[in-house]
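Thread: Modeling a multi-component assembly for a lab meeting

Hi all, long-time lurker, first post. My supervisor asked me to bring a structural picture of a complex we are working on to next week's group meeting, and I have zero experience with this. I have the sequence lines for every component (298 residues in total). Could someone generate the structure of the whole assembly? Inputs are pasted exactly as I received them:
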Amino acid sequence: MSDSEYPTANVAGRDVPYDPEQLRKINEHPCYSEQACHTSGRMHLPVAPKCNIQCNYCVRDFDCVNESRPGVCSELLKPEEAVRLVQKALEEYPYIKVIGIAGPGDPLANEETFETLRLLKEKFPTPIKCLSTNGLLLPEKIDELVKYDVGNLTVTVNAVDPAVGEKIYSFVEWNGKKLQGRKAAEVLLSQQLRGIKMAVERKILVKVNTVYIPGVNDDHIVDIAKKASELGVFTFNLIPVIPQYKFKDVVPPTHVEKKAMQDKCSVYIKQMRHCQRCRSDAIGKLGHDVQGCLYSKE
Ligand code: SF4
Ligand code: SF4
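Re: Modeling a multi-component assembly
Sure thing. I ran the full set together rather than chain by chain. Output:
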């Protein structure tokens, strides 16, 4: 599939064209449309500090590396503060078309995410609402996301075989228990796959992020791309691992290796090749962030 080609939507197992509202959420979203990244901006609201899993490449002092780049702590905002910032940002930077929640932890593990979405729906119904998650709570929360008009969703899937997944996750917090090893990977995977299917059925546009971890999941990434395609996922974003925590000695893939892997995956699913590894408080066009200006005026 060429990178500029749109797949059709998968509704109840049938391929149908995207509807006009879905097309808006593709064409105005800088991460879903390479053209839009020159004209539209996005705004991430850092309202979600907690996480319910432990990825072996994540140091929890920083932003969720599944979607954002670590190394810079985002200032946490309360939902009301976040909404005030949105007001200011939309006034000063009218090209912002997307409001997202991407951490610094897992958005679905934080009640503040839902209060923020509720306020956004009330006060700013037009901008696209976007969220990224590890997917553990997706089936249980999906209808709340629909209620608050979340139209674009990123789920990080690093394995579709629990034997690979168990090498990537130290633990998963599930029903008040801390699961480890194979069981943890099985529960996470099953929730991710169910959640993605439910999201696609509800006409949410899904992006799958996969962290490329040489020696751990590299032989398995094409299988993830195939699975994402079968589930009706819109686009696939391959992210090179940042060596830290338990994977501190892993050598990240080179640009050439990353491109070769994207090319292999592109047989099955459209590739996002312009990801900027944004902070969870990023504001502006991709690669042209303005959050420094906006936060300093707070
Ligand atoms: S889901 Fe994100 S915040 Fe949670 S452990 Fe993984 S990378 Fe870190
Ligand atoms: S981290 Fe990548 S996918 Fe997420 S907002 Fe930035 S460019 Fe888009």
